[in-house]
Amino acid sequence: MSQAATSVEVGEIAINKTRIALKRLTLPLLADVYVEDTQFALGMDDDRALLKHFIDKQDTFIVLFDQPRFAYLDGSLYQDDTLVNGGTQFLGYLFENAELATVTGEKGNFTAAHRTFDPDSTFGAVLSTIAPEDDVMVCDDLGDEWADFIGFRTDPASPRVTFYHAKHGDLTLGAGAFHVSVSQAIKNLGNLALPASAMASKFALWNRLYNNNGVRTGIRRTCRGTPAESRHAVSFCRGAPHTFKRVAIVTSSLSKAAVEQTFKDIEAGHTASPYFVQLYWLLSSFFAACTEVGAFGCVICQE
Fold it and tell me: Could you give the angle at the alpha carbon of 56 between the alpha carbons of 50 and 61, nearest 5°?
């Protein structure tokens, strides 16, 4: 393995009968990085593992091939012809929002006078045009967050819970901008069930004002609806057997039109960029993880 920017060799994989192993990883910055169990104080986990060993043991790496339809992901080999057949199915998970083209930051600025998030932030876009069908919206950002925002639609005919993970960045067709949001989204899939044991602390949080970087704002965490309505929404959506569960990564760093054009170029015979292939497989793994728990994963992005 080598770094794309420098072509310097940084590691080695071994192709065995049943799996691909990360045999060696020699990035200097990772040499002394360990993974520990969070139940212990820092440095007190006797079973801590070097990051490179953890990556290999947990199969938390992706191997791409010359033929982009193949990928080794989470310890298994996959074939997906969507990447070379126009990407129609993949594009069905991407939803356009024009306001994201005007976004200049993720959360915006904060003062004591703020009563809502800045309109040119991703947080502001979520509240203004991205979640119009949610009659209750709460900001769960910071701390033990499940998502940046949680939206509830309490229409008896079609109740819905949505976890919104909001990000901002320069337009790109690479995977780098999505690693954090995908990881956070997958980690919190179990919380789509709105576990009763966790709700007391959540209701207490949602009843407060939003603080960030030491600034106490006037932004209510229950951004739409009232605290009483948020309690009702949780109870109703948790109890309704037909509640639709959705996880949305909201980002200004991706354009659906650019993704669509890339698929057309690949279908026409152009070589697929390895960065785009990695993006494709990373987001595909996110969509698949959501499907496994009965949820719908999607990306809301620029046009």
Answer: 115
Give the tokens for residue 262: 């890339």
Q: What would the pLDDT profile of 175-196 be if each residue is shown by its tens digit?
A: 989 999 999 999 999 999 999 9
Q: Which domain holds residue 174?
A: 78-302
Same domain, 46 and 182: no
Residues with Cβ within 8 Å of residue 63, at least 6 apart in sequence: 13, 20, 71, 72, 73
pLDDT at 114: 95
Are both 21 and 106 inside the same structural domain? no
5 and 122 part of one domain: no
Helices (H) and strands (E) in the chain, counts: 8, 16
CB atoms within 10 A of CB 228: 11
pLDDT of the residue at 5: 57
Residues of the chain with pLDDT under 70: 1-7
> Does residue 67 belong to any structural domain of this protein?
no
Say what the pLDDT of residue 291 is.
Answer: 97
Q: Which two tokens stand for residue 263?
A: 């698929």
